[in-house]
Amino acid sequence: MGRSALAGSRDRGGATRVPDDLLLDAAKSCVLNSGVRRTTLAEIARTAKVSRMTLYRRFPDVHSILAALMTREFGLLLHGVAAEVPHAATARERLVRSAVAGVKALVADPLMRTVLDVDAELVLPYVTQRLGATQKLAEEVLRDLVVTGQEDGSVRIAEPAVQVRSVLLVVQSFVLSLRPATAGVSEQALLIELRHILDAALAP
User: Fold this and answer.
1) Superfamily of domain 3-60, CATH level 4
2) Residues of the chain with CATH 1.10.357.10
3) N or C, which end of the chain has less CB nearby within 10 Å?
4) Cβ neighbours of residue 112 under 8 Å, at least 6 residues apart?
5) Using an 8 Å Cβ cutoff, are 128 and 46 in contact?
6) Does domain 64-202 sit in CATH 1.10.357.10?
7) pLDDT by residue (tens digit) across 119-173?
8) What residue intervals traverse the membrane (predicted)?
């Protein structure tokens, strides 16, 4: 085996050994320091202390690694919020509490704040064109609670998919617009109103 072939073999082996979380942690650091638009694969590779080829083989472009990063970060955040919500008497109450807590957590999250402050146009496709992985994950969490709520009588009987999508649209608007919407209105007051909106929409 020639030297170049041996080097290539070693690099391929390195690509399989490098954990995705190491690469995603490096991408997160770069985004928080530079913003999404200024983050490059070369910078991520340097931060992760891996070769660019190792990174390219796993994530062919910046978009793919940033999409994976946001899916990981926001997915972990949403699951964490759902797990930490205090015991509720009904599934509807748990859904409402989880949704409001999720809004608060996402609005305060450093990665979400950086995206909205520096590169807000990047979220536009997920508002006007298609649902992203994080939105679909949120719908999975919501669907379980809606179905359970219909079973325990706390959620109005309707098509769960429609109810879940409607809740997602309301919650999403709060995540994207809560900070500028606090001009002249307190965040706490808006979150209380969100709780009333969701509770009334889902009540039998």
Assistant:
1) Homeodomain-like (1.10.10.60)
2) 64-202
3) N
4) 74, 106, 175
5) no
6) yes
7) 888 888 989 999 998 999 999 999 999 999 999 999 999 999 999 999 999 999 9
8) none
